[in-house]
């Protein structure tokens, strides 16, 4: 009986130590993910800011173009129309790039869920079998259904 209690105490200590290591590693990964998300967000916001700046000047050019089209019938409006089209194209390209970059961001909550699932699988496949505890097998199809 005493040997059994000693074994249980050792198991509890090792599980506690392993849990503390997992939590410390998880905190480090969360900090890393937040830094990465911050860099990605900053880059996306710079691109969206550039798109807004180009849009501001393109709108000004569009207003000038409208005035030119109404007051003059010279070829100068053709050049202004080309510059306007280039400005709109550049604005749309910058907006698309910024939006694409925002979509690549992984929220910290999703990162924690992904790593928690990974930890749970590791416990079920490595630690629990070593302790003699059987776990039900989970098919990949079931795992995909849960996601």
Describe this structure in words.
With 147 residues, the protein is mainly alpha-helical. The chain has four helices and no strands. Helix 1 (2-71) packs antiparallel against helix 2 (76-103) and helix 1 packs antiparallel against helix 3 (108-130). The mean pLDDT is 80.
Short description:
The chain has four helices and no strands. With 147 residues, the chain is mostly helical.
Summary keywords:
single chain, 147 residues, mainly alpha, 4 helices
H and E order? HHHH
- Helix content bin: over 70%
Instruction: Determine the mean pLDDT.
Output: 80
Structural class: mainly alpha
Based on the structure, what is the oligomeric state of the protein chains? single chain
Overall 3D geometry?
Answer: rod-shaped
Roughly how many Å is the radius of gyration? 29 Å
N-C termini distance:
44 Å
Write the layout of secondary structure elements.
Layout: H1 2-71, H2 76-103, H3 108-130, H4 140-146
Helix pairs in contact: 1-2, 1-3
């Amino acid at each position: 009986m005493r040997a059994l209690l000693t074994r249980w105490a050792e198991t509890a200590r090792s599980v506690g130590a392993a849990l503390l290591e997992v939590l410390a590693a998880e905190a480090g990964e969360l900090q890393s993910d937040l830094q990465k998300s911050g860099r990605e967000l900053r880059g996306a916001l710079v691109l969206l800011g550039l798109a807004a700046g180009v849009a501001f000047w393109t709108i000004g050019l569009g207003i000038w173009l409208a005035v030119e089209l109404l007051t003059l019938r010279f070829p100068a409006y053709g050049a202004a129309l080309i510059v306007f089209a280039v400005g709109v194209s550049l604005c749309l390209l910058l907006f698309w790039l910024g939006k694409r970059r925002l979509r690549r961001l992984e929220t910290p909550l999703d990162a924690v869920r992904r790593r928690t699932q990974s930890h749970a699988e590791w416990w079920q496949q490595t630690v629990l079998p070593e302790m003699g505890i059987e776990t039900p097998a989970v098919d990949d199809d079931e795992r995909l259904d849960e996601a």
